[in-house]
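Our preliminary data section would be incomplete without showing what the modeling component actually yields. Below, a chain of 261 amino acids is followed by its predicted structure, encoded as tokens that our downstream tools consume directly.
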Amino acid sequence: MIRFLLIYLLFSPLVLSATYKVSITPSCPYYCIDSEFKGYIVEILESYFKSNKDTLKTISTPYARISDSIDKEKVDFGILTALDLRDEVNLTTIKTPLGFRSTGVISRNEDNIVVLENLDLKGKKILLPKGSRATDNIVKEMSRINQGQGSEDLINEVTGSNIHKRLIDLIAIKRGDIALDDYNVMKYNFLKSKHTSALSISPTSLTGHNPILIVTKNNSKIKVILDKQLHLHIKKMRKSGELKSILDKYNLTDWDRTSSR
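Predicted structure:
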């Protein structure tokens, strides 16, 4: 028996589990802290790594520092949008997106504000979080549109914790006309707020429809693995209903419209 076990151990493949670190910004519904749920992106990634007997470790990182944490190899990969990667020469992406981001607007119902394009924001006092390329683009464009009309006083970039809850509260107490940020994040926080009867939320096309991507260093080992396997795992999750079960918890629909055809 001992001899049999030795032969088995010598010739059987040795499978070692690994722990992979992801740099991600806490923003429900993507990655949630102080919540009963983990966030749908974290749940998808955990499902994938668990299927390979590996472990995922989330590293909470301010959005503006994610690229740097990847570049300095503090983590194996990070989560960013395509818009925020245009100038990153040392980083590459996994081809499978984990959803899409667009800009949403929160406003008071009594003001009847409709935002279809940047010009609709002219003269409005805007609140938005600091740190993303989308925010930078909006600030730059509104400074141009509001030139000569006190543009510096019309844009307020908010920092700190609980930003989205604070943005919604500030609009409710009339500290601004509208709040702008990621539609999915704003919607998640809005539906949990006490202002759903006085405020409204709507999507816009101000910053386009940007894929949410896994980002790694060029030629990293994890890129090769994820490029080969992640899309197949998500396809299985769709077929089994696991993905829908996850997304339903966050009031989200599948970003792949072809999956329902």
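The chain has two domains: 17-100+210-260, 103-203. Residues 103-203 form a domain with the D-Maltodextrin-Binding Protein; domain 2 fold (CATH 3.40.190.10). Preliminary results of this kind motivate Aim 1 of the renewal.
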